[in-house]
Amino acid sequence: MQLPPKVTERAFARLAEIGAGDQGQALRVAVEGGGCSGFQYDIRLDRPAEDDLVLEGGGQKVVVDSVSLPFLEGAVIDFSEELIGARFTIENPNVSSSCGCGTSFAM
């Protein structure tokens, strides 16, 4: 039984701030082949598709396609604000290693 990804309240709040739901969009989180470690995340605003897993909170949506879902089992999708910038982050328990730049990973 797969444990679906979780989305923090902070991530949903950020989506509300940028008005994603008002435009009919959701935060899409996908895993693609590439990067220096084998896989990388694709995080962007997009419209939900019919076969997406939809995670909802605060009137906002985060969607994950069926191909990416096994790679994100038990992951936590969050939003982080630091001195170097603000971004959506993914804490993924399935990652065995990541590259120095932090954008790609291995499983």
Automatic annotation (TrEMBL):
Pfam families: Fe-S_biosyn (PF01521)
Domain Core, first and last residues per copy: 6-102
GO biological process, one term: iron-sulfur cluster assembly
GO molecular function, one term: iron ion binding
InterPro entries (alphabetical): ATAP, ATAP_core_dom, FeS_cluster_insertion_CS, HesB-like_dom_sf
Protein name per its UniProtKB record: Iron-sulfur cluster insertion protein ErpA
Species this chain originates from: Roseovarius halotolerans
Gene: erpA
